[in-house]
Amino acid sequence: MITTATTARERMQLAKDASRSIGLLGDEDKRRALLAIADAIDAASDDVVAANAEDLARGRTTGLSDALLDRLRLDAPRVAGLASAVRDVAALPDPVGRVLDERTLENGLRLTKVAVPFGVIGSIYEARPNVTVDIAALALRSGNAVVLRGGSAAERTNAALIEAMRGALRTRGIDPEAIQTVDEFGRAGARELMQARGLVDVLVPRGSAQLIETVVTESLVPVIETGAGVVHIVLADSAPVDRACAIVTNAKAQRPSVCNAVETVLVVRSAAERLVRPVVEALHGAGVTVHGDETVAALADGVVPATEDDWATEYLSLDIAIRVVDDLDEALEHIRRYSTHHTESIITEDAVEAERFLAEVDSAVVMANASTRFTDGGEFGFGAEVGISTQKLHARGPMGLAELTSTKWLARGAGQVRA
Amino acid sequence: MITTATTARERMQLAKDASRSIGLLGDEDKRRALLAIADAIDAASDDVVAANAEDLARGRTTGLSDALLDRLRLDAPRVAGLASAVRDVAALPDPVGRVLDERTLENGLRLTKVAVPFGVIGSIYEARPNVTVDIAALALRSGNAVVLRGGSAAERTNAALIEAMRGALRTRGIDPEAIQTVDEFGRAGARELMQARGLVDVLVPRGSAQLIETVVTESLVPVIETGAGVVHIVLADSAPVDRACAIVTNAKAQRPSVCNAVETVLVVRSAAERLVRPVVEALHGAGVTVHGDETVAALADGVVPATEDDWATEYLSLDIAIRVVDDLDEALEHIRRYSTHHTESIITEDAVEAERFLAEVDSAVVMANASTRFTDGGEFGFGAEVGISTQKLHARGPMGLAELTSTKWLARGAGQVRA
Question: What is the pLDDT of residue A1?
């Protein structure tokens, strides 16, 4: 039994109560707590792997796909990897207490805007045990309590990891109620988490587009929307063929299952004859299935006919859609219609055109002459990644620890009243 | 007829389409557009006052209260005041294009995080025509299109103001569809605005606590919650009597109808005998009705007995609640229970106690030895105020133009691919 609280609501209240002391912890206390958590995960490795074996056995009987079973699977090296990731988070600078603005009014009132923890961060995610550890570590590093709701398929694994993490907090004299799970309450627990306005300050869903859409639609708690990426690369009139092949292939095939992988390539008509065949051949060479419009199919061999659905699909696989557009205007129009506003890139030698693309495309990250795979907290140098926000409120693009903080104005006076 | 669009949805689509060109306007273009709007409001003064007279006449027959009629009323000087406020917004610096972060990766990829407009800002508010002009001006200054839904009681006044503003944009060669209203569609229009995820980027409700609660609960569009202030002042053991009287009276009586006015005073028991009587007398002298607990009633004359409801009430009137608490811990507990996390202040000579209060109170603005009336965009030096956010996501406390922008990462490369 993880805690004595018997309802999801009670668990969240415990997290909120704990958030008060967690929010006041200093940098060093939080760092040591995370190192203790990493050690505890290492020490619990056998228990975690055993719990995971139960989840895997249940998953096989309930018909989980091989891909899902693989995401769920933990062995000793993977558990060690989880602990190691916690140590990486421990080493990051404390985002709390940063002074973001300072001003002294004419009457002498001193105003300071400081970064403070949100309080309680909720996360709803699918059966990936690494997210359990990841989100808990990031939340604690930024002074927040956390309420987790992982997929039911990983329930025993998550429980073992959470027990280890809570035990580590206890040994450091820190309130273990700062890490909560509502997994045992199933879908009802997820619903209560989404309704917990006033107890939970922000909800970060992680997983499929469908999961995120459900949370965005149903949650009364403010949500940071992450994830889905129907990502575009535009090949402009002046795009060098080598660069086009290298960037498109890298953006698709280097790791096709992630949100920053390209899904659609738009080739400007004037460059189609020059670029389509070599780009398709490069993609074929990397094992990619190319879904193309009629022009693309006429210019290259082995192209699968694309339908309207292809333009809106986040394949997350070794598939790509290619369409020939009349000009940059039509490319921008296509992007407005189908993009999830995650990342888009243009390949061009024309600096004016590049700057137009950077200015006009309304996405979290807009690139010229680079692979979309760079949209990543690690690549951006944040040291950790909470997710990639595709919304415009609060955080946009790769989120680091700073995005898990809010702000507070402190006003220090000597009796000032308003005239 | 304001536009040819016949449904609320079409209006919002027009706003979104217009937001593309509005978002690319330069500082000077936006400034001139706002000056043209100010001139147009001045020029339309007679029409606006006439439209307002119709609203007032209808309001009288439908039984609007005198207070609501007064908020609704526009005469020539008030219309001139609206135009003047637009000129003030025009004079503010452009929040768009600010470089918020810059980094160059080892591979030479240059990353720049810039402030960009949200796109389309929605606002749902009550029958105050000044909000119509205010929100439109702030939205345009920050490069956003705007969809307005004012109270139906102000429909004709709002229509006249919006027509003037749209006309001014047209004369400047700017797409007038950047200013939209869904007023004619009544409650259905408000509902559609709250459902318009994907067309409207952020919704800023302004008005009563009930209006804001409805929007927060029903909106699928991300909301910035503003407003309600159950604001507390704590009088600590060492609070000087003169300072306590001056700050409490100022915070309550200088302008009782606003969200940063104090509603509850918590007096630490050790200071009660010394402070309660003079503070109550000072409040009585300012025409304030004091609702007090039994201890307060025993220490001062003319105290109305307070009930549980008083602690949770935002009076917005010349009423105040006073309670004696055992110590700072109990004061903090009371604040946690009843505060709307807007503004709280402590009066104390003890610097350690002041810093504890500043650290532990979880509100947008936390003060020591100052009147809560300073929580205000104008007082903070923002030049304009979009509202006072009581949420933790995106913006907290007084919001200026910067809070009406999102961000975008620009990545300028030379063919970089990920290893």
Answer: 47
CATH 3.30.70.1270 corresponds to the domain B8-226+398-412: no
* A369 lies within 8 A of chain B by CB: yes
Q: How far apart are CA A291 and CA A308, in angstroms?
A: 11
Amino acid identity, position A274: R
- Report how many helices (DSSP H) and strands (DSSP E) chain A contains, helices first: 15, 16
Q: Tell me the residue ranges of DSSP E strands in A110-260.
A: 110-117, 120-124, 145-149, 179-181, 202-203, 231-235
**Cα–Cα dist A48/A42, whole Å:** 9
Of B243, B393, B418, nearest to A394 by CB-CB distance is B393
Contacts of B352 (CB under 8 A, 6+ apart): none
What is the predicted pLDDT for the residue at A4? 65
What is the Cα–Cα distance from B136 to B139, expressed in whole angstroms?
A: 5
Q: Cβ-count burial of B98 within 10 angstroms (0-12 exposed, 13-18 middle, 19+ buried)?
A: middle
Sequence length of chain B is: 419
* B373 touching chain A per CB within 8 A: yes
Domain assignments of chain B as residue spans, ordered by start: 8-226+398-412, 231-374
pLDDT at A361 over 90: yes
- CB contact at 8 A, B290 and B283: yes
Residue A5, exposed/middle/buried by CB under 10 A (0-12, 13-18, 19+)?
A: middle
Report the DSSP pairing between strands B397-399 and B387-389: antiparallel
Give the 3-state secondary structure of residue B33.
helix
- pLDDT category, A67, cuts 50, 70, 90? confident
The verdict on a CB contact (< 8 Å) between B411 and A105 is: no
Give the distance, in angstroms, between the CA of residue B343 and the centroid of all CA atoms in the same chain: 13
**Dmax (CA) of chain A:** 79
CATH of domain A231-374: 3.40.309.10
Q: Tens digit of pLDDT for each residue in A79-123?
A: 999 999 999 999 999 999 999 999 999 999 999 999 999 999 999
Q: Are B404 and B115 in contact (CB under 8 A)?
A: no
pLDDT band at A59 (very low <50, low <70, confident <90, very high): very high
Contact A24 B359 (CB under 8 A): yes
SS3 label, residue B167:
helix
Q: Is B303 in contact with B265 (CB distance < 8 Å)?
A: no
Query: Looking at beta carbons, which residues of chain B come within 8 Å of A381?
Result: 103, 105
**What is the per-residue pLDDT across B68-103, written as a single tens digit (0 to 9) for each?**
898 899 999 999 999 999 999 999 999 999 999 999
What average pLDDT score do residues A381-391 get? 85
**What is the number of residues in chain A?**
419
Dihedrals φ, ψ of B122, to 5°?
-105, 150
Element (DSSP H or E) covering residue A252: helix A241-253
Q: What is the pLDDT of residues B216-246, one digit of tens each?
A: 889 999 999 887 889 999 999 999 999 999 9
For B357, name the nearest residue in chain A, comparing CA atoms only: A410
Asked if A332 contacts A362 with a C-beta cutoff of 8 angstroms, the reply is no
Catalogue the long-range contacts made by B399-404 (C-beta closer than 8 Å, 24 or more residues apart). Answer: B399/B224, B399/B226, B400/B95, B401/B92, B401/B93, B401/B95, B401/B138, B401/B141, B401/B142, B402/B95, B402/B98, B402/B115, B403/B224, B404/B95, B404/B117, B404/B118, B404/B121, B404/B138, B404/B139, B404/B142, B404/B144
10 Å Cβ neighbour count for A6?
11
Fold classification of A8-226+399-412 (topology level)? Aldehyde Dehydrogenase; Chain A, domain 1 (3.40.605)
The pLDDT value recorded for residue A3 is: 61
Q: Are B400 and B224 in contact (CB under 8 A)?
A: no
pLDDT for B101-157, tens place per residue? 999 999 999 999 999 999 999 999 987 899 999 999 999 999 999 999 998 899 999
